[in-house]
Amino acid sequence: MSARQQSVPAANPARWGVVPYITAWSSEVTPPYGLVIRNGRLAYVDESPYDRDQAGVLWARMRISPGVGRPQFKNVHYLRQRLAMRKLLCQVCGTPCGKDAVWMLSAQEYQNAEGPWPAPVLTAHPPLCPNCVERSARMCPHLKGGHVVLRASRFAPAAVSGMLYEATPAGLKQLERATIEYGDPWAPWMRASQVHMRLEEYTVLAPGPLA
Ligand SMILES: [Zn+2]
Q1: 96 preceded by a cis bond (ω within 30 of 0)
Q2: Coil, strand, or helix at residue 8?
Q3: pLDDT digit string (tens) for 142-180?
Q4: ipTM higher than 0.85?
Q5: How close is the Cα of 159 to the center of ligand 1, in Å?
Q6: How far is ligand 1, taken at its centre, from the CA of residue 19, in Å?
């Protein structure tokens, strides 16, 4: 292969196969964008229907080119994370999980449940298919301190994380990163990058080994 050919970024199916579906790649950058206030909420200058989710929240943009460049294991692709939550795709292999979907929470996430067990618990980690549970427990740094595997019978998208903006007399002002519930008065002022699922009813399949 010539040097010229090597310099051309191209998808590498072999590597793509071992990188989790929701992982962002170095080629998947945020393109330049402009924000405005339109109809009393944050909006893109050149907005399209794809820029908002079903609740009308504006989403951060990211190029879509999985397999091109280097995997950024610490970064999640905004759209694939959202699709995995909404369509119950396995966060590792991307397969539709359907009724087999399980949820793997870190011990920390599980302890942050909204009250005593078995209270609802919020997670930004999309589901897993049963085949990917063991691999995920081994590979995901956030699960190293112990984990819990759940099967949920009732759950719904409940919150979004991202950047909050404020309308000021001088124009739009960027505030801070935050997590807010759908329906929150601040929701029209968020540029979201992750959705959180609230697991409302679930059974615990396995507590993981505590480190
Ligand atoms: Zn899987």
Answers
A1: no
A2: coil
A3: 777 888 899 999 999 999 999 999 999 998 999 999 999
A4: yes
A5: 24
A6: 11
